[in-house]
Amino acid sequence: MTQIQMNQLRILIIACIQLFLQANPSDAQHVMGAKHLAMGQTGVSVPGANWSVFSNVAMMPTDQNRVSFYGFRYIGIAEITDMAATINLQTSRGTLGGGIHRYGFNLFNENRFLLGYKNNLGNLHYGASFSYTHVFQGGAYGSAGAAGIDLGLATKIFDGLWFGARATNINQPAYGDTDEELPRELAAGISYLLSSDALITTEFVKDVMFPVSFRAGLQFEIITSLFARAGITTEPETYSFGFGYLAYAWEVNFGIQQHIPLGLSPALDLAIRF
C-alpha cells in the first residue's frame, strides 16, 4: 500500500469515527476539563469550576482570576482532538469569562469562541454567554459560521448542596445559509459535598436531537490536595476516572474516558490562579 493510499485510508477511518461521534454525542463541546471528564462529564452544578464558562456560565469562579488549558484526544487519534483554553476575571460588577475551543484537524475543524458574564443576588447565581462557532471543511466544501447564546442559573440550596442548569444555543443558530443547526440542549443537576473530602455530582442532559443522557461523578481527596475521581454517562455509555492535584496558585488534572465501543481517550488540563 502506497503512502497516499495509507493517508486516504486514515482519513476514511477518521471520517467514520466522526460520524459515529456525531450520532452518539459526547457533548465535549459544552463540557471541558479533565476534572469534569473524569467525573462523568458533569459540571453544570459544580461551583467555582475552571471550565464553567462552557458547562454553566452561572458557576464561574468568583474568588480569583484564572487561566486554564485543556487537551482531550479521542481514542488516541491526533486528528480528532479537543483543545481549549479559558480565562476568568473578577470585576466590581461581576465575573467575566472567555473561552476558545478547537476540534478536528486540517481537513475538518470546528472552532468556538465564547464571552461570558455572571453575577449573583444572594444565593441565586445567573449568567449568559455569547459564542461564535466556525466550521472549516477541506476541498471545495468551504466554511461557515454561526453565533449562539447560552444561559445559566444556579443556586445554593444549603451549605454543600448546589443546583445548576443551563440552556445552550437558545437562539437556534444555523451555519450560514444552511439548515445545519448548532447543538441545542438543556442540562440540570445537583452537586453535594458529602464531607470536606468527598463530592458527588449528578445531572441530566437533553439534546433536542438525541435521548436524555444521565451522568454521575464522584471525587475523593485521598491525601491533602490529591484527588481521585470517577464517573459514568449514558447515551452514550462511558466510564471514566482520573486524578488531580490542587496547589494554592495552580492545579493539574488528568482523566481517562472509556467509550463503549470506541475505546480509551485521555485528557489533561492545567489551571493557574493570579
Radius of gyration (CA) equals 18 Å
Structural class, from secondary structure content?
A: mainly beta
In quaternary terms, these chains amount to: single chain
Total helices: the number is 3
The rounded distance between the terminal residues' Cα atoms is 53 Å
The CATH topology corresponds to Porin
Q: At the fourth CATH level, what is the homologous superfamily?
A: Outer membrane protein transport protein (OMPP1/FadL/TodX)
The average pLDDT is: 89
Can you tell me the CATH architecture?
Beta Barrel
Order of helices and strands: HHHEEEEEEEEEEEEEE
Question: What's this entry about, in short?
Answer:
By secondary structure, this protein is mainly beta. The protein contains three helices and 14 strands.
Mind explaining what this structure looks like?
- By secondary structure, this protein is mainly β.
- The protein has a single domain (3-273), classed as Outer membrane protein transport protein (OMPP1/FadL/TodX) (Porin), CATH 2.40.160.
- Helix content is 11%, strand content 57%.
- A 14-stranded antiparallel barrel has the order 1-2-3-4-5-6-7-8-9-10-11-12-13-14.
- A hairpin with a 2-residue loop joins strand 3 (94-105) and strand 4 (108-121).
- The longest helix is centred in the N-terminal third of the chain and has 21 residues, at 3-23.
- The protein is globular and about 55 Å long.
- The protein starts with a helix and ends with a strand.
- Residues 3-9 and 19-28 have low confidence and may be disordered.
